[in-house]
Design a protein that fits this description.
This protein is an alpha+beta fold. It is built from 13 helices and 14 strands. It has helices at about 95, 130-135, 145-150, 160-170, 175-185, 190-200, 205-260, 260-270, 280-320, 325-335, 340-390, 395-410, 410-425, and strands at about 5, 10-15, 25-30, 35-40, 45-50, 55-60, 70, 75-85, 85-90, 105, 105-110, 110-115, 120, 140-145. The model has no long low-confidence stretch (mean pLDDT about 75).
Amino acid sequence: MATTFPHAGMLTFTERLSDSPFVERIWRSQSTRRGSFLSVAQSHFEMAVTRHRGRTFITLRGPETIATPAECPAEGEWLGIRFALGTFMPGLTPSELRDRRDATLPAATARSFWLDGSAWEYPNFENADTFVARLAQKGLIAREFVVDAILQGHRARLPLRSAQRHFLHATGITHRTVLSIERARLNITDADVAAAVESAAPPTGVMAEYYSRQDQLLLSALIDVQSLRIRQYAPAVTIMLYRATATTLLALLFSYLILIDLNKLKAGIGRLRTSRVGDFYHEAAPPIARFGILLGRAVEAQAAIAVINTLLTLIGLLLLKIPLVAMLSVIVFVCSFVPVLGVFISTTPIVLVALNAGGPGLSLAAILLVIVIHAIEAYVLNPLIYGRHMKLNPVLTLIILYVGYHAFGLWGMLLGVPVARYFTHDVLGVPFRERVRPSGAPPAAPT
C-alpha cells in the first residue's frame, strides 16, 4: 500500500513497502518549487533515479552519518529504492559512497543506463521489485546476513572482530552508528533512552516510534535469518522426505506381493525340509519364526500405545477447546509410532494451532498437556503394554527402552524390547516367571 505525504511544502512523497528481502521500501517524489532542505542522517544504501528537464540518470547513495543541506530544483521527479540494511553492491560498497560521495552511473540511452557492461532500463515505481530481483539474479547486489544476526543481538557464530568487520563492509557504518542515526533522526538522547528503560509506563511519542523502528529492524532480521536457514535445510529435508516416501511405497508394494503369493511362498519354504539344507532349516526356522512373532507383538503393543495416546490427546484438546481436533489427532496417532522424535513432531502443530487460536496462554496449556500425556506414555503405558505383549517385567521393559535409546537411538527404541526378549528367553533359555498357584491346587500335569 502506497502512502503519500508532503515535505517542506515543496516536495510530495509517495512510498510503499516491498516484498523483496533486499529492499526496505520504494519511494518517489516530485518537487513543486525550487528550494533547499536538510537531508537527515540515514543508514541505508539507496538507488535514486532523477528526471529533470528531459534528463534522466541514476545515482547510488551510501549511508549519511550527519545531516547535510541539499538543494531541490523545481519540477523534478525522483524514484528511490531504499535497500534493507545489509544489502550492498559487491563492486561498490556502501563505505565508498558514505556521506554524500554519490556515484552516478553512465547513461546508455534516454531510457537506460550502463551497469556491469550491460544496458539496464530505468526502473519505475511499479516494477522496482522486478528490477531488484534481476540485480540479485546477476549477482550485482548481495545480502550480508551477519548484519541480521547482529541486529538480533548475537554474532552468528563469528568472533566479535569478524562480525564487526562484516557489518561495516555491508553497511559502511558500525552497529553503534546505526542506532545513533535512529536516535538523531527522532531527536532522542542516551538519557531519554535510559529513562524510558527504567520507566514502568509504556513509551509514547518519538520514543514509541524509536522502539517501533527497533522492532521493525529486529523482525526484519529475524525473518531474513529464518529464510536463510530454510534455504539451507530445504534440500536435506526434501531428500529425507523423498527417501521416506520411497521406502514406504516399496514396503507397501513388497507387502502386497507377499500377501498375493503367500500360499506359494509357504509351500516353497516348506519344501526346504526335505532338501539338502533340511538340517539347517530345522535348526534355523523355529528361532526365525519366534523372532518374527515377537516383532509382530511389538508392533501390536506400539499400535495399542498409539491408540491410547491419541485418545488422551483428543480428550485434552477438546477440554482446552483447541480447533482442528481431527487433524491434530491423526498427526498424533501417526507420530506415536516414532519413538522420542514423534513427540516433537506431533507437538509442534498442536502448539502452533493453540497459539493462533488462544495466544501464549493456550499454547502453554497445550505444552503442559503434551508433557503429561507423554509422561504417562513413557512411564506407564510403555512398560505395562510392552511387558504384557512381550511377557516381560514392566520395570525391565522400561530399563530396556532407556538403554536401547541411549545406546542405539531410534532403532534401539523400536527393536530393543523384542530383541531383548528373544535373547533372554530363546537364546539364553531364561524361563518365564511362573504364575502363583492357589494353595492346595495340584501341580500342572507334565506335557
